[in-house]
Write a structure and sequence with these properties.
This protein is α+β, with helices and mostly antiparallel strands and about 425 residues long. It has ten helices and nine strands.
Length: about 425
Amino acid sequence: MDLAHEEPTGDGEAEEMDRELLGNTHLREPPLYSSHFQGMVRQKAYIFDGHGNFYNKEWDLAEGRDNEFCWYHVELPKVNEKLSQSAQYLIGVLCPPLKLQDILSLVSNGPFCGHVDGALVFRVNSPGPPSSDFTFRIAARVTENSVITVSLGRVPRLGFSEIGQSLLSEIPRVDNPYLGGEQKEGGGIVIKEHVLEFLLTMNHSEEADNPVPKSVSNLVVHILDTHVDHLQDIVTKLEMDLDSVELQMDKGGFALKKQMLDDRRFPNMHLNLQRLLQVIAHGEQVFPRVKEKCSSKGWFASEDINSLEELIGQLRRLKENVGFIANRVTAIQAGLDSWQAEQINRKLYYLSFLSIIFLPLSIITGVFGMNVGGVPWTGQMDPKSKYGFRNRRRAMRRGWSLNRKSFLNRTLGNGGVQGRGGYLRI
């Protein structure tokens, strides 16, 4: 049985992790599908027989017959591009038979749930740079016999793979370079340490452990469940990173704390948490509406309605957990701000001691540097310069009075004002 087709994408880290997880299995190379944007988007096409089996199919966007139903998934590249470019990708792979209104309803930002051209369409697309780990976009177009989904980047556990290929069912041994050849003596599969760290952040099984849906309603629940699991993975990774940072701060000193302040690590983390809260808020708006609209469909099972209710409750608990993490980040940032203020106050304290020493010296040097007579303790015993400031003031007053008298004598001595009608000669 072939796996669903996957075209290459720019998500190199996810591809490398997939090769690590499935590196010991022998898979047949899937056929390549032609596309206007080959190499930019990844496409998966499945057909389910309604009895727990699935097969790889051609990318023809046809609907299933009788109990069969089809699933077509488009994975957009996680790179910084305009939203119009993503719309062009979808037009290239989904048109025809989809129309422009279908493309716009799948690729636009923000939450949405409604009927478009007779199909149920819902999306949880958050705004933000596409390359960010905290930008999530998942949209679906659901009919009775087909589902078309669009995601930004790889969503863990979204697809399906053959039974018996799960790494979690193996007996593992960690690939430790410090042990040399001693680690390969026993049986079991050898995994690398970074793969083990990646698995610790997962709150779900692998694709090989996914139960194969037997109806469209099972598939819709599976899609929403993987979206919630993806959010939970990000929250778990944030918690682990935050625990590691707190441990470093307890052991670190001045240089580490200053580096964290210069890098604005916690403000950026707080901004990412707000983006994550926005994604969860969009899910809280969309999921209840999906449940309400699906409950009126005859082909949507009642058990899956209950599963949607559980996912809504899980989103609410996840929102509370993110709020707790945001409070932790705020508390750590407040502690760093307090530490920075303490450092500044300490420097000002040292500066005040220096001013106590050098301020009196500057006053004394200023007094003895005055170029006047009569300064005490300078040896100037001349009686004329004994009181330099006061004598100079008297001399200035005397000079002003003499100049005034001479001016009046020149102007009024010969009767110039009376002889010329009160005007002065210039």
